[in-house]
Amino acid sequence: MVVVMTYNPYILFRKSEPEREFQVAKVISSVSPDILLVQELAAATPEKAIDSVCRLADMTNMQCRLYQDMGEVIFTAAKGSRTHAIGILWNQKSGVTPISDSWHVIQAGFWHAIARLTFKVSGILVDHAVYHGPPRAGRTDFNNVQQERNSEARIIAELATQSDRLPLLVGADWNYLSADTVGGNYYAVRRSPDNLDPNIKMLAQSREAGKILLDAGLFDVSAAMFDPQIGKMPTTGHWSDYLGAGIIDGFKATHEFRQAILSSRVTRR
User: Fold this and answer.
1) What residues pair up with 250 in beta bridges, in sequence order?
2) 35-42 and 4-7: which strand pairing?
3) Are residues 19 and 64 in the same domain?
4) Structural domain containing residue 200
5) What are 66's strand-pairing partners?
6) 198-205 and 142-161 are packed helices; what angle lies between their axes, rounded to 10 degrees?
7) What is the CATH number of the domain that holds 3?
8) pLDDT score, position 62
9) Is residue 266 included in any domain, yes or no?
10) In this structure, is residue 231 part of a structural domain?
């Protein structure tokens, strides 16, 4: 069994916060992932992106370095077009093996970025991608935000439908709701406050980008593995009082994963 975790610890390492850093490391250790897909680490520069991702790796006894044949070191960290980093970490002792020449980052056309790394898992090659979608926070150009989300979703859809692709699992802070359903009802919900600006609420409730991904064959793992006895758990944290608690973080996967995934859960600490 392989445990994959996606996590947004909200601008971690932007400033010195020893207690929060300890809590973040504790959450990751409690899950003990074989592969960790992380978003929104502090990254004012490309060098800071590497520093933040590898600092998290050191804190959690995970790896962030790929060693090439000629001795070159590649760091699995990427700075997006803004001041946030994304990264992919792995547990070297878990049996998952990263393919050293498979690290690929796409920044053009993205608010942040998307990065992909191929792992050999039980002898099978599988692509794992980490992504951070365009935020609404502090912006009033609502139509542009929606168009950015839709445009990025189309690029991700292309990655998932390429004829020569490997099975793909994307862990992300999508920043929007999925279009997947359970029992005829939408799985992901966002219960926004009644007094929220109607335009902001409309954007917060939009499923346009989610539908693009669903139509491309990328399904929401949490929806597919929904257990009514456990129920739904929101994944938002720092904005939950403002936009309302919602399910905007998680995994999307290509059809090959439907029979391979054993369970999905949200960890709250």
Assistant:
1) 172
2) parallel
3) yes
4) 140-260
5) 74
6) 0
7) 3.60.10.10
8) 97
9) no
10) yes
Q: What is the pTM of this model?
A: 0.95
pLDDT value at residue 209: 98
pLDDT single digits (tens) 38-86? 999 999 999 999 999 999 999 999 999 999 877 789 999 999 888 999 9
Q: Where does the pLDDT of residue 238 fall: very low under 50, low under 70, confident under 90, or very high at 90 and above?
A: low
Same-domain check for residues 31 and 152 = no
**Residue whose token pair is 């919602």:** 246
109 falls in which pLDDT band (50, 70, 90)? very high
Between CA 143 and CA 141 the distance in angstroms is 6
Give the confidence band of 2 by pLDDT, cuts at 50, 70, 90: very high
Shared-domain flag, residues 2 and 119: yes
Same domain, 101 and 40: yes
> Domain check: are 58 and 117 in the same one?
yes
